[in-house]
Amino acid sequence: DAMVIQNPRYQVTQFGKPVTLSCSQTLNHNVMYWYQQKSSQAPKLLFHYYDKDFNNEADTPDNFQSRRPNTSFCFLDIRSPGLGDAAMYLCATSRPAGGLFTDTQYFGPGTRLTVL
Amino acid sequence: AQRVTQPEKLLSVFKGAPVELKCNYSYSGSPELFWYVQYSRQRLQLLLRHISRESIKGFTADLNKGETSFHLKKPFAQEEDSAMYYCALSGSGTASKLTFGTGTRLQVTL
User: Fold this and answer.
1) Helices first, then strands: H and E counts in chain B
2) For a designed S-S bond to B88, which of A48, B34, B83, B94 qualifies (C-beta 3.0 to 4.6 A apart)?
3) Residue B45 to residue A109, Cβ atoms within 8 A
4) In A, which residues are within 8 Å of B9 by CB distance?
5) DSSP 3-state assignment of B103?
6) In what side-by-side order are the strands of the sheet with B19-21?
7) What backbone phi and psi angles, to 5 degrees, belong to B77?
8) For B1, how many CA atoms within 13 A lie in the half-sphere containing its CB?
């Protein structure tokens, strides 16, 4: 089945130690998103790629970076994780229909990040 | 700024009872509204969108621009409806970018 895959499902890192989360998709979608979801909070968009064009949200900390080497893969890099970065990180994809309406987003299972 | 409010963290109903999950939004233009659902140990997925005006798994939602609401309703709750429900908004000019509410956990009991 075509899908969105996130690895690993659980990641533990140490305070200040860089960490990379991975997302891959077999849907061949143009757009890939990264959301951060803290406990009991709404998923919050960090940034997204439309093909190779990177779109950062204004309030996303510089500590968070992303790479998209090809259509299928997108990475979230946290350069110096703090305790406040512990959260579920969700990857999603979409294929713009080219019309007036927002396209459906397809989500991965998420990676739960723990910072010690 | 756009905002989505889901006032209830938890909604517990009996099987067969009507369900209404509340969602209110704040947006100055013409929004698109969605309901996403996450069943236990599954990923977040689209349930329905206001543009489609269709019923999915017995759920419907009507966009009320006057009350800025998009409540999700089902006349008779089933056990398999137990899940986390998120209301989301996409504003005009920000195609594909979603603002989510904090979610409501629906618990259907026998």
Assistant:
1) 0, 11
2) B34
3) no
4) 40
5) coil
6) B19-21, B72-74, B60-61
7) -70, 145
8) 5
